[in-house]
Amino acid sequence: MSASLQLRASSPAELGAAFTRLISRSLMVDGQPPFNDQALVDAASGARRLIVAEHGDVIAGAVLVGEGEFEFVVDPEFRRNGLGTILLDRILDGAEPGIAGWAHGDHPASRILAERTGFEPIRTLYQLRMPVPAFSSTDSGNEGAGSGNEGIVVEAFRPGIDDDAWVELNARVFADHPEQGSITVDDLHARMAEPWFDAGDFLIARQADRVVAYNWLKIEGAEEPGEIYVVGVDSDYAGRGLGRMLMQRAFDRLRERGISTAALYVDADNVGAVHLYRSLGFTDHTVDVQYRRPVAE
């Protein structure tokens, strides 16, 4: 394998359909994508490096590295041949101390490779799923639920109008989150340019002209689960039931779009959010684990 394997830097745009095919083949086998959305946005902009392993004319594997972390995938046809170790060695060659790596799905092979190379688990991300409820449990009005929510309405995101306000609120809500809290207006626009984006799936709660909460859905097709992409509530409005109300509105929207399954990702240590989602009926589907090799003192 290694004698006929070539590693080189590339970009998603250069690889085109070949890169998309690698992701799709891995998704089909593993049940989830090998790269998170922010990593793909960064790769497209050049903020993260993309390294591909080519076996003849075929992409056998790929690495995304940058922002202090890495993700890599091996095409299912080329697994169990040592390619994962080769790619990890390439990642670690010259990488900054303390670089972290994601194992999406936390498959046994990933755990074995992490243990063999001295990586330890530092973060756990749940993927939860549930059937979309058949009927709405919200009232017929558009006002927010809970005490003190008078005048709050839920409407679709307005491209070109809500951009800055949403980015500012998202940064405050996720100030301690390593990926979500760092999203810029350019990152938002990159997502808005994706085929799956629909402003009607981006639910914004407002009081007067102030954006106070949101629930963004990612719907890629009627046969795919509808993802609760990101939910946020302004800290000034916390504890008023806005998060639960927006989840119910999200179910309404998914039902309108013909989606039968809802999915979301949540950090295991976000106890409040995990409790909310489980109380709504979400259950475990898969687990992502982030690993880091301790830095020698």
TrEMBL record:
UniProt GO BP: mycothiol biosynthetic process
Gene3D superfamilies, sorted: 3.40.630.30
Annotated family: Belongs to the acetyltransferase family. MshD subfamily.
EC category: transferase
Name of the protein: Mycothiol acetyltransferase
Enzyme Commission number: 2.3.1.189
Gene behind this protein: mshD
GO molecular function annotations of the record: mycothiol synthase activity
Binding site for acetyl-CoA 2: 231-233, 238-244, 270-275
Keywords: Acyltransferase, Repeat, Transferase
Function noted in UniProt: Catalyzes the transfer of acetyl from acetyl-CoA to desacetylmycothiol (Cys-GlcN-Ins) to form mycothiol.
Residue ranges constituting the N-acetyltransferase domain according to the UniProt record: 5-133, 152-297
Assembly, per entry: Monomer.
CDD domains in alphabetical order: NAT_SF
Residues engaged in binding 1D-myo-inositol 2-(L-cysteinylamino)-2-deoxy-alpha-D-glucopyranoside: 37, 179, 218, 227, 265
Chain residues that bind acetyl-CoA 1: 80-85
InterPro entries for this protein: Acyl_CoA_acyltransferase, Bact_Acetyltransf, GNAT_dom, Mycothiol_AcTrfase
HAMAP family: MshD
Catalyzed reactions per annotation: 1D-myo-inositol 2-(L-cysteinylamino)-2-deoxy-alpha-D-glucopyranoside + acetyl-CoA = mycothiol + CoA + H(+)
